[in-house]
UniProtKB/TrEMBL annotation:
Biased composition (Polar residues): 857-867, 955-965
Organism: Trema orientale
Family, per entry: Belongs to the adaptor complexes large subunit family.
Subunit details: Adaptor protein complex 3 (AP-3) is a heterotetramer.
Protein name from the UniProt record: AP-3 complex subunit delta
Residue ranges occupied by any Clathrin/coatomer adaptor adaptin-like N-terminal domain in the UniProt entry: 31-493
GO BP, one annotated term: protein targeting to vacuole
Pfam family, one: Adaptin_N
Gene Ontology cellular component annotations, sorted alphabetically: AP-3 adaptor complex; endosome membrane; Golgi apparatus
Keywords attached to this entry: Golgi apparatus, Membrane, Protein transport, Repeat, Transport
Function: Part of the AP-3 complex, an adaptor-related complex which seems to be clathrin-associated. The complex is associated with the Golgi region as well as more peripheral structures. It facilitates the budding of vesicles from the Golgi membrane and may be directly involved in trafficking to the vacuole. It also function in maintaining the identity of lytic vacuoles and in regulating the transition between storage and lytic vacuoles.
Region (Disordered): 775-971
Comp. bias regions, Basic residues: 811-820, 897-920, 939-950
């Protein structure tokens, strides 16, 4: 075996050989790696440590670059960790750091090895163990190795000590109770004379304070001393990050800290430190105008720098200061707008954010025009960033900054025609939402929708199909505002709509149905008005408007006289929403229409004589020609709407004049029947839609007796009193419904009608898998997880459903107050998407432990002298200094003791002491701390070996500071 190991060592390829071989493999790299992996699997089992180390080194390289799994070598890594040679130990620790995780089975085997290396006299071995522990530490490892790390926190070797400080982040994360032992010693390192140790300690506290700054507020004096005295820029940057968090919790702290920060900003030449000072001021010290002005001056200096990194940082700082001090952005608006054409995409995005921060109701038109010009010249990605920013800013707070909605709707239409536009979903939502909320903009909205529908370039762009869907819906829903509904119908039925997805085509057909109903209803309305006038003839000749004026010369004069009056009555009469008869209409208008001749349509927006016999017949023919082929499509949504439209035309056509000579009586009766049908259909779609709260469904009370089930398998258990007929509920077959005079088929007859099993086995299997696409069957053994639609079995059920639908669609109208902008319907609540309520943040275990160390021990020194943290912190001079026995630190912390006690758990023990402390001066409190600290030090010097295992029993788990925790001299 030894010989074999020697041979493996002599002919083994090293990592350098492996890398050279990979670089020479122009093709067949995977084969070369597979061969190398086979060699590694064989070599790593060798008993020779050198062979094993080389194999493990190559495996780590391949795993890092090609993500090969090296879990099979975990045990060999543990074996190599115990090697006496440092080079081999280093390879093993690197492999463990790279491949081990909490689920690695052999992780429990390295505890003793780590403990041995952590206590080694060789600082390089200690460093290896600390580096590995910082990456792979688990709860068990952090708990078991906590004493060794605690010892290393006061090591005389700076190289080891600063790494031990860094390891505390991982240890605190995995084992928060370690803070009760190690936290005070960690604070001691802030007072070290070595800048490397101070830098490491400040870095740890910077990370800890970013998660829970409140727990580290008592350490503000130490951080302030470092801020004033330190000359290390990186240490100052981390301290500034800490103060940016603490100042938000204690406003009085800012008054003391803001001046040193401004001094650093004026004197330092390091750009990184200047920017950190700027960010600290604009985020946490915005109330100090002088500091903000100084920060803005420094930002302006960054903006004119040639370095793109400094430009980006300056723009980022302006975006932070913009919400509270917009003047800082306005002073630099020329430079900001210029950066929209910069080569760096990050700079362009930041400048775009700043431009949108300047938008208000006074300049939204100008800024939007400038941004659209930039969008036309930009690349697709930045173009859509611009469009998205405009859309999100304009719709903020229910279009708060929009005064002219006609302009904004036309702007949405222009956005849709930008070549690189991919914001179809957002534009669709806003077109529909504006139509629902703003009534005054609906005429312009229909015009914009018509322009989008007839634009052939939009049909071929899949990103804009949603916009076409919104345009079609708007055109059908508000067709009464269209000047030429017949042209709108042609746009909805144009042949190129076949390029659209089925869901969009379904909207087109439904809108065409609404337009058809409106056109026929308006046609009968004009005929009825003409019939009620004194002019001879019941039907206006379709040739021209001049013919009607020749027959009734007074018509043109009365039309001009009554135009304004009819416009005033427009709101009272709307063919889409009006249910009153035309006799009542003529009575309402009075003299306005009783003597007028010709066509006096109440729709001022419609072109004259647009609805004639010939135009209606042509429109019906076009619909049948365009929609007829869709009656055989496989798309359910298109099929349903197409057949509804065709059936309505078939029903109406028999009552319409077709150009042939008919008797006046039959024609009049036919028109009456057709009018009843159209009026009924008009009533069905006439209710105006309004905005719906996104939380509307949540406010619907759930019936107490409602049981929601996945299917109807246990319907008999839910409704035991109802005995359904055969197959009436399982498959909903229309062929088995009971009809008068026809009995239901018996089970035997059904079996006779079924085909043989041999001929239908494949069909049955296919039906079982794809039953959704089959028509209902009489067979009772075919599973169907989709319940049938509810059939209206009685007229009463139908009436109840109609009433319920009418009630749900009635919009609550608000009074229209006089405003300089159109009325925008806003809901009392639910306009914004609800955000999930964040649970009340509770201090985690680490915060509890830190607060217990900083607050709990201070208020109960006499009862906590024998506790682990006090005993562990009394072994050397530095620990005695932090154990509240040094006048400088106790004066800095300045904690009022009796306010940090838990009254429910300590009142009986310390009531008398608490009363005495209320009247003591700060010097008396400091003297008492000195005495208690010395006494606790003497009594607890011999208990260090058991400090980590004994829990605290009488100290509260979470103590919230109630009083000032920062000394007055700092505030």
């Amino acid at each position: 075996m030894a010989g074999s190991s020697i041979m493996d060592t002599l002919f083994q390829r090293t990592l350098e050989d492996l890398i050279k071989g990979l670089r020479l493999q122009l093709i067949g790299e995977s084969a070369f790696i597979s061969k190398a992996m086979d060699e590694i699997r064989r070599e790593i089992k060798s008993t020779d440590p050198h062979t094993k180390a080389t194999a493990l080194q190559k495996l780590s390289y391949l795993s890092s670059l090609y993500f090969y799994d090296m879990s099979f070598a975990a045990f060999h890594v543990v074996e190599l960790m115990s090697s006496t040679r440092f080079a081999q130990k280093r390879i093993a620790y690197h492999a463990a750091s790279h491949s081990f995780n909490e689920s690695t089975p052999v992780l429990v085997l390295i505890t003793n090895q780590l403990r041995k290396d952590l206590t080694s006299t060789n600082e390089l071995e200690v460093s290896l163990a600390l580096d590995c522990l910082a990456r792979i530490a688990t709860v068990d490892l952090a708990r078991d190795l906590n004493p060794e790390i605690f010892t290393l926190l006061s090591s005389s070797k700076v190289f080891v000590r600063k790494k031990a400080i860094g390891v505390m982040l991982r240890v605190f994360e995995k084992y928060p109770d370690a803070a009760r032992v190690c936290f005070k010693r960690l604070v001691e390192n802030l007072e070290s004379s070595d800048p490397q140790i101070v830098s490491a300690a400040v870095g740890v506290f910077c990370e800890l304070a970013s998660k829970d700054p409140k727990s580290y507020l008592p350490l503000a004096p130490e951080f302030y001393r470092i801020l004033v005295d330190s000359k290390n820029n990186w240490v100052l940057i981390k301290v500034l990050k800490i103060f940016a968090k603490l100042a938000l919790l204690e406003p009085r702290l800012a008054k003391r800290v803001v001046e040193p920060i401004c001094d650093h900003m004026r004197r330092t030449g390091a750009k990184s430190l200047v920017f950190e000072c700027i960010r600290t001021v604009v985020t946490s010290f915005t109330d100090y105008e002088s500091a903000v002005k100084l920060a803005v001056v420094k930002i302006r200096e960054f903006l004119v720098e040639d370095d793109p990194n400094l430009k980006y940082l300056a723009l980022h700082a302006l975006s932070i200061v913009a919400p509270n001090h917009l003047w800082a952005v306005l002073e630099n608006k020329e430079v900001v707008i210029k950066f929209l054409s910069d080569l760096d995409p990050n700079i362009k995005l930041e400048s775009l954010h700043l431009v949108m921060a300047m938008v208000s109701e006074n300049n939204v038109v100008e800024i939007s025009r400038v941004l659209l010009n930039y969008a036309l010249k930009s690349d697709p990605e930045f173009c859509n960033e611009i469009l998205g920013s405009i859309l999100s800013t304009c719709c903020r707070n229910v279009y708060e900054i929009i005064i002219d909605f006609d302009w904004y709707v036309s702007l949405l239409g222009e956005m849709s025609r930008i070549p690189h536009c991919q914001k179809g979903d957002e534009i669709e939502n806003q077109l529909i939402d504006i139509g629902l909320r703003v009534k005054d903009v609906r005429p312009e909205l229909v015009q914009v929708g018509r322009g989008l529908l007839i634009d052939p370039a939009l049909l071929g762009n899949p990103f804009l199909h949603k916009i076409l869907s919104a345009a079609a819906w708007v055109s059908g829903e508000y067709v009464e505002f269209s000047r030429n509904p017949l042209e709108l119908m042609e746009a909805l039925l144009q042949p190129r709509t076949g390029l659209l997805p089925p869901s969009i085509r379904a909207v087109y057909i439904q809108s065409a149905f609404k337009v058809l109903v409106f056109c026929i209803h308006s046609y009968f309305s004009e005929t009825e008005i003409n019939a009620s006038t004194s002019c001879p003839g019941n039907v206006v000749p379709p040739e021209s408007e001049l013919a009607s004026e020749m027959e009734c010369p007074e018509a043109s004069e009365s039309e001009t006289h009554n135009a304004s009056a009819i416009r005033k009555q427009e709101e009272n009469f709307n063919p889409r929403v009006s249910n009153q008869s035309f006799k009542d209409l003529s009575e309402d208008y009075g003299e306005q229409i009783d003597t007028s001749c010709g066509q006096t349509s109440s729709l001022a927006s419609l072109e004259r004589n647009v609805f004639t016999d010939e135009s209606i017949i042509n429109m019906l023919n076009k619909i049948e020609l365009a929609v007829g082929p869709l009656s055989g499509t496989h798309e359910v949504e298109i099929l349903e709407r197409a057949r509804n439209l065709l059936c309505f035309i078939e029903l109406i056509r028999q009552y319409l004049p077709n150009g042939l000579i008919q008797k006046e009586e039959s024609l009049k009766m036919g028109e009456i029947e057709a009018y009843k049908i159209v009026e009924l259909m008009q009533d069905a779609i006439s209710d105006e839609l309004g905005p719906v709260s996104v939380t509307a469904q949540e406010r619907v009370p759930l019936p107490a007796d409602l049981v929601l089930l996945e299917n109807l398998a246990d319907l008999e258990a839910v409704l035991p009193d109802i005995q359904p007929h055969l197959n009436s509920l399982s498959l909903g077959s229309p062929f088995l419904e009971e009809t008068p005079g026809v009995p239901l088929p018996t089970h035997q007859n059904i079996e006779e009608l079924e085909p043989t099993k041999e001929s239908t086995s494949l069909l049955t299997e296919h039906r079982r898998r794809h039953g959704l696409y089959y028509l209902p069957s009489e067979k009772n053994d075919v599973s169907n997880d989709y319940p049938p639609a509810n059939d209206l079995k009685s007229q009463d059920d139908a009436e109840d459903l109609v009433k319920l639908t009418e009630q749900s669609l009635v919009s609550k109208k608000k009074p229209n107050h006089a405003k300089p902008r159109p009325v925008v319907v806003k809901l009392d609540e639910g306009d914004l998407v609800p955000t999930a309520a964040k649970p009340q943040s509770k201090d985690d275990s680490l915060s509890d432990a830190v607060r217990e160390v900083l607050f709990g021990n201070e208020s109960n020194l006499s009862s906590s002298q024998n506790k682990p943290s006090d005993r562990s912190s009394s072994k050397n001079k530095g620990k005695e200094k932090l154990n509240v026995d040094t006048s400088e630190l106790k004066k800095d912390l300045g904690i009022d003791k009796h306010h940090h006690r838990n009254s429910s758990s300590r009142k009986s023990k310390h009531q008398s002491h608490g009363k005495e402390r209320r009247h003591r001066s700060s010097s008396d409190v400091g003297d008492q701390r000195d005495k208690n600290g010395e006494e606790g030090t003497k009594k607890s010097s011999h208990h260090h070996s058991r400090h980590k295992a004994r829990p605290r029993t009488d100290a509260p788990s979470s103590v919230t500071p109630q009083t000032q925790v920062i000394p007055d001299f700092l505030l």
